[in-house]
């Protein structure tokens, strides 16, 4: 095993936690409440801080504007202070133009101009929040779509999306980015306005030079080749970031690698191959977008971060020089085996060493279970009313 490669890979690997992953969330059939779940932004940041303190690789937290900034931009100062107290920093800022009643028929794609204006204003406020917090990325996801054929003017809505995204792009500071996330269905079940990576790419291009595409791994039809999408977006310099999660059927928000770890490995491998080929690090934000209905929230996040590290380390073991030779000779078995051998390597001992080297617990999950943190917050948080704005579903 090439330990140097693993160490180099781990030194540069960071993954962002979602604030909403620490709150009570569920499915559309209901939530199973956990007494230790976070209900306030302070609690979410504290829990994320625990994950970072134990793993050392999740220093930033993605924030959802309606759930985490009760007073909008006026909450920014407080959120920033709470984050630094928790030992983390604000990460990507996620506007929310899908939850309020006003968005029943869409946001940027709504036929009613006053609703489009309202949505645009919210996203502009989100850019302002991001700027206050020194967050680079404003991450946009739209639930817009329709449920029945003939009920929406698809090309007109596309133009409205272009106009709104362009207007929003004009608000960005020169060091900010906007990320456009796509999703093929849900909550809309006939058409989604930004349904796939091609639509997101075209809209990001139309929006302006600081817009990129965000790939949520749960937002694809089954068996779609996600790493090929990644390769194409890298080639176009249009890959901005990921929302990682796993799934068996649809957008199930399961733990990364729990169903198909080889797919995550293949995605990381494409990114590392790009770096090998170009000598440039791909400027891509790794973020988690998971919510756990059954697993303990903090344990699930520690597990997530640990698995992500393992898969990244395995991908870093692929010998791209040897792979290039095998590909050039069309030696299919040799080429494929280079991936399979790397994937089969047990990188856990090397990761333990890396943690010890960085004065981190060799086993973050065990350290968490020993720490007493869960018992303490369970006692503190049990019995208090859940804050209404803290989560979804
Ligand atoms: C939508 O399914 C999504 O992936 C978007 O990223 C949202 O911001 C997130 O989930 C939380 O609802
Ligand atoms: Mn997402």
Bound heterogens, unique: alpha-D-psicofuranose, manganese (II) ion
Strand content: 5-15%
For the sheet with most strands, the description reads: 5 strands, parallel
Low-confidence stretches: none
Examine the coordinates and then state which fold CATH places here, giving the name of the CATH topology: TIM Barrel
Write out the CATH superfamily name.
Divalent-metal-dependent TIM barrel enzymes
Count of DSSP strands: 12
In short:
The chain has 393 residues and is α/β, with parallel strands linked by helices. Helices cover 47% and strands 12% of the residues.
Describe this structure as you would to a colleague.
- The model has no long low-confidence stretch (mean pLDDT 96).
- The longest helix has 21 residues.
- The protein starts with a helix and ends in a 12-residue tail after the last helix.
- A five-stranded parallel sheet has the order 6-8-10-11-12. A three-stranded parallel sheet has the order 1-4-5. A two-stranded antiparallel sheet has the order 2-3.
- The protein is 47% helix and 12% strand.
- The chain has one domain: TIM Barrel (Alpha-Beta Barrel).
- 46% of the residues are buried.
- Helix 1 packs across helix 10, helix 2 packs parallel to helix 4 and helix 10 packs antiparallel against helix 12.
- By secondary structure, it is α/β, with parallel strands linked by helices.
- The protein contains 15 helices and twelve strands.
- Bound molecules: alpha-D-psicofuranose and manganese (II) ion.
- The site of alpha-D-psicofuranose (PSV) has 10 residues, from loops.
């Amino acid at each position: 095993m090439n330990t140097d490669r693993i160490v180099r890979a781990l030194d540069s690997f960071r993954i962002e936690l979602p604030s909403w992953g620490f709150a009570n969330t569920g499915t559309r059939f209901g939530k199973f409440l956990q007494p230790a779940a976070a209900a306030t932004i302070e609690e979410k940041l504290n829990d994320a801080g625990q994950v970072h303190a134990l793993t050392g690789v999740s220093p930033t937290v993605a924030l959802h504007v309606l759930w985490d900034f009760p007073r909008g931009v006026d909450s920014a100062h407080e959120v920033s202070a709470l984050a630094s107290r928790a030992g983390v920093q604000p990460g990507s800022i996620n506007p929310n133009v899908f939850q309020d009643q006003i968005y029943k028929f869409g946001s940027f794609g709504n036929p009613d101009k006053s609703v489009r204006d309202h949505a645009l204003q919210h996203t502009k406020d989100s850019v302002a929040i991001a700027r206050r917090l020194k967050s680079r990325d404003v991450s946009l996801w739209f639930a817009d779509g329709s449920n029945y054929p003939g009920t929406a003017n698809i090309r007109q809505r596309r133009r409205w999306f272009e106009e709104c995204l362009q207007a929003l792009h004009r608000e960005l500071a020169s060091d900010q980015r906007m990320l456009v996330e796509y999703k093929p269905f849900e909550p809309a079940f006939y058409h989604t306005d930004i349904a796939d990576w091609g639509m997101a790419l075209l809209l990001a291009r139309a929006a302006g030079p600081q817009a990129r595409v965000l790939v949520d791994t749960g937002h694809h039809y089954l068996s779609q080749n996600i790493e090929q999408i990644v390769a194409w977006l890298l080639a176009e310099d249009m890959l901005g970031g990921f929302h990682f999660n796993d799934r068996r059927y649809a957008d199930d928000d399961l733990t990364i690698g729990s169903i198909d770890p080889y797919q995550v490995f293949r995605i990381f491998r494409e990114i590392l191959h790009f770096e090998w080929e170009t000598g440039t690090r791909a400027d891509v934000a790794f973020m988690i977008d998971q919510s756990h209905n059954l697993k303990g929230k903090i344990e699930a996040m520690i597990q997530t971060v640990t698995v992500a590290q393992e898969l990244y380390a395995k991908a870093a073991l692929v010998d791209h020089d040897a792979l290039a030779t095998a590909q050039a000779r069309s030696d299919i078995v040799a080429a494929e085996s280079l991936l399979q051998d790397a994937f089969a390597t047990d990188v856990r001992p090397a990761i333990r060493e890396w943690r010890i080297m960085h004065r981190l617990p060799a086993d973050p999950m065990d350290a968490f279970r020993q720490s007493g943190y869960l018992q303490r917050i369970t006692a503190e948080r049990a019995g208090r009313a859940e804050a209404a704005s803290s989560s979804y579903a």
